Amino acid sequence: MSIKVAAPLVLGLLMLGLWEGAVRALAVPPYILPGPILVAETLVADWSTLLPSLVVTLEITLAALAAVVVVGGLLAVLFSLSRWVELSLFPYAIILQVTPIVAIAPLIIVWANDVDLSLLICAWLVAFFPTLSNTILGLRSVDPNLIGLFDLYGAGR
């Protein structure tokens, strides 16, 4: 195992040990802050109850990720191709980013009238702006020499 892999693993185990030690030394009640050992024991003991919730969470997360990649990626390509479209639509993306999800989640639940769809929309809203802005940044940071090479070979947009 290389040092680059071992260092974070050792640091993580050290932090878990410090957490467990602090909880035991300070006699913190488990309903306030359970130690990592109690968390692991509970995870194993209640696995049959937790597994269906994990499946639902993963389904919604992956569906939201797919929707964000498609919509955010397509909009980022559109924004990078047309400055006019970007100036027209980017303020709406910023509005989505600065609006607290806690404030609009009840409205989304009422509007969607479906819990899974509401969760999907909320997860999409959280992930949309970072995906859009980072994809735009990546598309704009292409090496100018590569753009010149594409022009040399007659490549289109």
Task: Give a short summary of the structure.
The protein has 157 residues and is mainly α.
Question: How is this fold's topology laid out?
Answer:
Blueprint: H1 3-25, H2 36-45, H3 47-81, H4 83-98, H5 101-112, H6 115-140, H7 144-152
Helix pairs in contact: 3-4, 3-6, 4-6, 5-6
Would you kindly provide a written description of the structure presented here, covering whatever features stand out?
The protein is 83% helix and 0% strand. The protein is mainly α. The longest helix is centred in the middle third of the chain and has 35 residues, at 47-81. The radius of gyration is 23 Å and the shape is extended.
Keywords:
83% helix; 157 residues; mainly alpha; 7 helices
Provide the residue-averaged pLDDT: 92
Reading the helices and strands in chain order gives HHHHHHH
According to DSSP, the number of beta strands is 0
Distance between the termini: 45 Å
Structural class of the helices, strands and pairings?
mainly alpha
Number of helices: 7
Largest sheet: none
Rg over CA atoms, rounded to whole Å, is: 23 Å
